[in-house]
Amino acid sequence: MKVKTILVSQPEPKIENSPYSRLIEKEKVKVDFRPFIHVEGVQAKNVRQQKIDLNNFTAIILTSRNSVDHFFRIAEEMRFKVPDSMKYFCQSEAVAYYLQKYVVYRKRKIYVGKRAFNELTPLIKKYKDEKFLLPSSDTLKAAVPDALNELSVDWTRGIFYKTVISDLSDLRNVYYDVLVFFSPSGIESLLKNFPDFEQNETRIAVFGNSTVKAATDAGLRIDIKAPTPETPSMTMALQKYITSVNK
Questions:
Q1: Where is average pLDDT lowest: 33-37, 140-144, 161-165?
Q2: So what's the pLDDT on residue 111?
Q3: Taking a C-beta distance cutoff of 8 angstroms, is the pair 133, 78 a contact?
Q4: % helix / strand / coil in the chain, to the nearest 5?
Q5: CA–CA dist 200, 193 (Å, integer)
Q6: Segment 236-239 long-range contacts (CB within 8 Å, at least 24 positions apart)
């Protein structure tokens, strides 16, 4: 069956001429964006209940833009003035760049990984005498605490925000040829919103091994996978699939 409509379970990209824009133009398909999950901040009192005192830390490990936003939100709610001496360990350049929303870059000690968390750990190891805070969501990949424990550094995880399933009830009678997922939480949201979901001719596209596992465990048929050596991005995987079925 040909592909004419695609629903991506993420917010619409804010950049002009995104890979999805090129896919739409080239393949003449309709692509809608709808976050299946969203993030909600945890209140400062809940952070205190985790026995976290921001005064006790000399370094912050930031793995995402959400972790940046919610660290500074909690600091403000707790009336904690972040000292100039605070060190920031950012998982990627994108996270480090986003940090400029809150701090004057040239006046801060900022250490940047390449992309994956294990590429940041050598920098953390260099400063193993610091007291590290990891602001995170309630869902955290096991690889992160495992890597920090292996370094034998003094670190504490704080749950500063939570991943929440979005209400998708308005989509109950809306059908798409392809549903695109990037996390196990997206699969969970689909099944929570539509417990009677029947895949039938709907194609499922998934990104990453953990999403593949979640979809498989849920009994879904996976038609499109990324990343692969041939299709390292989701848009490339979609392009390849659409080209093959829309002949």
A1: 140-144
A2: 92
A3: no
A4: 40, 25, 40
A5: 17
A6: 236/19, 237/205, 238/6, 238/23, 238/178, 238/180, 238/205, 239/23, 239/26, 239/27
Residues 198 and 241 grouped into a single domain: yes
What does the mean pLDDT of the chain come to? Answer: 94
Q: Do residues 33 and 8 lie in contact, with contact meaning Cβ atoms separated by under 8 Å?
A: yes
Can you give the CATH number for the domain in which 213 is found? 3.40.50.10090
Distance of CA 29 to the CA centre of its chain: 26
Q: Is 168 helix (H, G, I), strand (E, B) or coil?
A: coil
pLDDT at 105 over 80: no
User: Which domain range does residue 228 map to?
Assistant: 30-36+168-245
Asked if residue 109 and residue 57 are part of one domain, the reply reads yes
Read off the pTM: 0.78
Checking if the pLDDT of 159 tops 80, the result is yes
Report d(CA 57, CA 69) in Å as an integer.
Answer: 18
Tokens representing 116 are 């994956």
Task: Give Cα 115 to chain centroid, integer Å.
Answer: 13
Rounded distance between C-alpha atoms, residue 36 and residue 184, angstroms: 11
Find the radius of gyration of the CA atoms of the chain. Answer: 20
